[in-house]
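Deliverable D5.2: sample structural annotation.
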Amino acid sequence: MSAEPATHTLELSDVTLRYDVRGDLEDAGPDSPPLMLIGSPMDAAGFVSLAGHFADRVVVTYDPRGTGRSTLTGSAAADAAKGVAEWSPDDHAEDLRRVIEALGTGPVDLFASSGGAVNALALIARHPGLVRIAVAHEPPLARTVPDSAQALAAVEDIHATYRREGMGPAMAKFIALSIQQGPLPDTYAEQPAPDPAAFGLPVEDDGTRDDPLLSQNIRGCCCYAPDFAALSAASTRLVVAAGKESEGELAARAGAAVAERLGLPLAVFPSHHGGFLGGEYGQQGEPEAFAARLREVLAEHAD
């Protein structure tokens, strides 16, 4: 099966979505549906290594609205340029619905990471018939952890910092929150702000406010409240996962909390939050071992 992706376009009222198909959709069937790999706001470029380990299947990737090649149009584009556009997981779920329906193959299997995992939970709650098996890897749902008040306050502070000071200071706070080990202390908000330069980030504010993560998605994603009743009732075979090296970090703790809430075991994957990356964005995980574990999990839930 060809690993070269064919790019398709889906025109919606406020965005042009672009998605890639590796393989021939006619080769997909009920026993081997397309495997869709999604992140948010990470785009399709982040899944090149992982997709390469599934050359025996039809693989679909896409760029979420406002990222990569999925360009906003009309008032949505204007709002994004001004930093006032924000997308909820429900918005992304409807985009995913349209892409899956455009494939015309019936339900897909879905691997979803980080913000993509949150969007996958929204999709399954709203349209469970579109997904056969879903693996939600480290959804950073701040509401689900015991220290939710501190986590939600930290997310709001990151967004406010971006509006006030720009990308460097806000991204430094985001990274610090992402790698914080264990529950956030009550005094977390009072700690000195991290130095952007320590993370190789710009200190000067360039004046832009259209970053897909810091402006458009962070609050909608991290502050989202999943519909646990709908997820429990869904026909989708849901797996919630976290990386072995991520234990204690917010996204992994949230994944464990979601799994517990749904009465599911937490599936442990190799490596860390970006364990499937093979050098994309300068980050290295263990893509071969990660893909083997994903293949194992999908097979376990295929019957």
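Annotation notes: The chain has two domains: 5-142+224-300, 148-217. Residues 5-142+224-300 form a domain with the Rossmann fold fold (CATH 3.40.50.1820).
The annotation will be released with the project's public dataset once the embargo ends.
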